Amino acid sequence: MNDTFRKGLISVLRDQLHAKKTVEIEKLGSFKSIHIKQYQKPEPDGRVVLMPPIDYVLFTPEKK
Amino acid sequence: MSLTQEQLIEKISEVSKLDKKLVAKELDSFVEQILQVSKGNPLTIEGLGVFRLKKGRLSLDTAPNLALEINYKYAGMMPLEIKKGNESSDNQLEQNSEVSTLQNDEELEESGSKSTKEDLGFEIGKVNQVEKKKEEEIKVPKKEKVETQIQVTDPILVDSALPKTEKKSAPKIDEAPKKVATPPTAVKSNQTPKIIAVVLAILVVVSVIVFLNKSNKEKTLAQKENVDIKAKSEVQLSFEPEKPKVEETKPDSATAKVKQTQPVKTSQPEPQIAQTKSISYGLSGEFNAEIPSYYGIVLYTLSFEARADAERSSWIKKGFRAYVDTWIITRENIKYRVALGQFATVEDAKQAALTLPAPFNEAQNHFIKRLNP
Fold first, then answer.
1. How much is the pLDDT for B84?
2. Contact indicator for A32, A58 with CB cutoff of 8 Å
3. Is the peptide bond before B177 cis (omega within 30 degrees of 0)?
4. B233 pLDDT tier (thresholds 50, 70, 90)
5. How far apart are CA B282 and CA B315, in angstroms?
6. Mutate which of A1, A4, A7, A9 to disrupt the B interface (most B C-beta within 10 Å)?
7. Rounded to an integer, what distance in angstroms lies between the CA atom of residue B342 and that of residue B332?
8. A63 reaches B (C-beta below 8 A)
9. Distance between alpha carbon B189 and the CA centroid of its chain, in Å?
10. Which of B10, B37, B50, B70 should one mutate to test binding to chain A, selecting the residue with the greatest count of A CBs within 10 A?
11. ipTM for the complex?
12. 3-state secondary structure of A39
């Protein structure tokens, strides 16, 4: 794979995900940025933990 | 909002300054490489992540740098413990955890993702796997501990619990600690006399403190009165020589004889008292108890009789007809008024009050009161 292409692809992907846009690639799937709000998570030992919010990259493969 | 493949190719060509056709070829080869990923051969793309097959499905483990760039707002935030744990509330926690997972799913739907739980197998999958492992680790030793306790305390429960499956036995195991936890109540019943004794001791201490506070307040009141009296008497002493001059201007009264003796008063107060014994009314002389009713100039109202007597004697020494009038408000609340002079009318008393040394001659520092012995 061309290194210039790889860098360009990652750069575009990052910018689009920052802008909350989904990037679709034919035959492969889509990349999107997902946000999860903070939430309270009860642990088995009785503790309640406040989980921080998170943004992450979700890759969904294309259905055949 | 999505970016199509054509738009993507344009963008990449703009960024990398490559020809669009070349970019399109590179993109095709990129897709082919990824699609060739098999179970044992994950494909790592530097800066993007690792593509691998999970449960027959292609997934991406995002590269740490890219994940950090996407999650830059919340980077470094750690889970925060907001409630400490209770061992006895395992059932509730299990229910709560179910509710919380439902809530999480709802939140995901709200955030606009159409993905199901299975789709979240990249980032969240890691966390969930780790959490499940932790839960399993924590649950297993608990069960063992509880079972050992049951063997010691209640063999019947063990017999009933053993043949059942793990899932069904779990709630019964949760019930067991409650039965084991009964001995502390017996201990509590033994502690009740101690608690009562402690409460009584606290009550005694509080009552003593209240009593001490009351006595301290009385002392402070007495001290305040002392200070006031001293201040007033000091002021009075400084103005003492003015007294005869004012009395000379006095036009009224039953004090014609007093006027004749005035020059003597200024230098020798004691002879003046002797001379004024015969006078029934007046500001100076001895107190005449035979007068049934009269007006007096009240200077002080004090709470302590001894203090009032001391004040009276000091005014007598200065040549005034001073006396103490007792004012009974209630049985426990008695005040002592230090008054000067005995007058037939209010006007006489007012005129005489003007002759008092400052600041007592001011209307705000005395009052005229009809007094009955």
1. 80
2. yes
3. no
4. low
5. 14
6. A9
7. 28
8. no
9. 34
10. B70
11. 0.90
12. strand
Contacts A35 to B, Cβ<8 Å: 111
Beta partners for residue B342, in sequence order: B282
User: Which two tokens mark B62?
Assistant: 């995002």
CA distance A11 to A1: 16
Q: Which helix (H) or strand (E) holds B52?
A: strand B49-54
Amino acid in the structure at residue B80: L
Mean pLDDT for the stretch of residues B324-344: 86
Interface of A with B in 2-61 (CB under 8 A): 2, 4-37, 39-61
Query: Which residue matches tokens 């740098």?
Result: B65
B325: left (phi > 0), else alpha (psi -120 to 50), else beta? beta
* pLDDT for residue B62: 92
Pick from A22, A24, A56: CB nearest B67: A56
| pLDDT over 50 at B93, yes or no | no
Closest by CA position to B6, among listed B19, B20, B18: B20
Put simply, the answer to whether B138 touches A39 (Cβ < 8 Å) is no
pLDDT in tens, B57-92: 888 999 998 999 899 888 888 888 888 876 544 444
Measured between CA atoms, how close is A6 to chain B, in angstroms?
Answer: 8
pLDDT tens digit string along A23-36?
999 889 999 999 99
Closest Cα to residue B179, out of B165, B161, B163?
Answer: B161
